Amino acid sequence: MNPRKPYDGTRRNLLIAMDVGTTYSGASYCLLDPSVVPEIQTVTRFPAREHVGGDAKIPSIIYYGQDGSVKAVGAEATQEGILEKAEDEDWVPSKWFKLHLRPNDKDEDTVDQAIPPLPPNKSAVTVFSDFLRYLFQCTKDFIIQSTPYGVSVWESVEDNIQFMLSHPNGWEGAQQSQMRRAAILAGLITDLKEDHGKVQFVTEGEASLHYCLNNGCVTPGLGVVIVDAGGGTIDLSSYEPEDSKSDAQKKMSFREMTRPQCYFTGSIFNVKDKARQYLQNKLKLAESRFLEDIDYICDCFDKTTKLTFKSPDEPAFIKFGRARDRDLDVGIKSGQMKLSGTDVAKFFEPSIQSIMNAIILQQKSCANKVDVVFLVGGFAANDYLFKTLTEFLKSTGLNLCRPQNYSNKAVADGAVSLYLDHFVTSRIARWHYGIKVYEEFNAFDPGHAQREQTSEIRLATNKRMVPGRFSTILSKNTSVAATTEFRQGPYTHFREESEIWKRSPMTPFKIYCYRGMQQTPKWFDEDADNYIALCDVEVDVQAPAQLHRNVLTGKIYYEFEYSVILSFGLTELKAQVAWIEGGVEKRGPATSIYDN
């Protein structure tokens, strides 16, 4: 681990990271005091969990009343008294709500069927915002209660808070935009453009890498695969160390080796689902009276049996009832159901096989050698999963490790570390990014000849132009450093003199990405469904453009030359427009991709 330097800011600030998971959530924070070495703190006390020492997670559940108001959140929503009240007052539960934000994927119909619907008149963003508001309040209360002079400390930082929100590897700008909207609705930030930067994003894989680095788990010189095994998704990321530039710069740094992956094969979609199918069939076939308790029995399996299962050679038990509950035909005795270890092992097979295949795929796609696999996330707590993966990976030459406290706080703590430490210096572009342009017609170009009927004469220049060309700014699989900019242009825009260009913005244009299989995408009418519009970018010109006269018609136009710039910053892609004015480059405001 690198020694962290004292905070070099001039005033106290607060950094809060929130990890809203499919099934469990948590938060971490760091008070940034000038000249003081920052320390990452974990929120370990939540309402209805006060008696549990050091528990850094709460269930991702919200109960709504019939009027749409929030009634219970987190651990409060799982108390026995609350459950009875919820039933009496007809409250509506919302769980796994995070997955409603996920990218659309036509191959994930089974996921759609498995995810519970949202409460009436509630959007995924609204529910997410309600949970963020609650998690923020819990963090505020914890800081005030656990910090000396907590109230005055909070008052000194409440207007200077930076938020880090984590999300699965497969999520991109569209999901980040929705999460930022949720943060605005939750009151974490305002909707002013200058406030949008107070929310930054981190993938769960990258956050987990930072957690491992801070806990001394990653050995310098070794390539690593991070497997974040959660309830909803299995996220995989691969990194390799970079050589320090000099002996004076001993900072540990890593770069992404290949595109991270995200699979909807977490424990709720496989282990719990397979267990439910088995138990329901078993109870139904025996006509057991406990069939009506199937939901509760499955919940008990998910909370205890699934986590403690160790071997197919030993029986497993689901404790769900009272001492007198008994049905020997289905293995129920003294309020618990006995299951064969072999049957329980079958519940795990789809998830374990998915993780195995994903690790091998990551390993093969990495140009350099991978030595270690780190297993984190709530599902990683299961010893059978860890043992099975360990045995499998021996034949591949990979070592499997679980860092300390991997299941409770890896992502939230790691998200804080990403902001403080920036261990990852470059990432891999997921897709091709670019804009739609016209090209001057060339009869000898097969692509132009094929599209001659769509070509048109531009009045400003009397040149025949072919529309619909994809001009790539950033290519798929390109290694992108946080500070690197990708520029394309110059492009020329014309506007008639009568439109009075002076001090008015140019018509917005769109940034697109191509998600198909073509190695070098060229035309929007080829594989058209895989060109996705991401955001609008405006050129806020505060000076008159150059005058241009059409030599044939004598008509005068305003001519404006500009370039388009893409940059990653931390983990969020942004677009800008640059132009030359008075010999000096000017830039318009940066627009977050998807953040319209």
TrEMBL record:
It comes from the Eukaryota. SUPFAM superfamilies: Actin-like ATPase domain. This is Actin-like ATPase domain-containing protein. CDD domains: ASKHA_NBD_HSP70. InterPro entries: ATPase_NBD (IPR043129). PANTHER family: ALPHA KINASE/ELONGATION FACTOR 2 KINASE, HEAT SHOCK 70 KDA PROTEIN 12A.
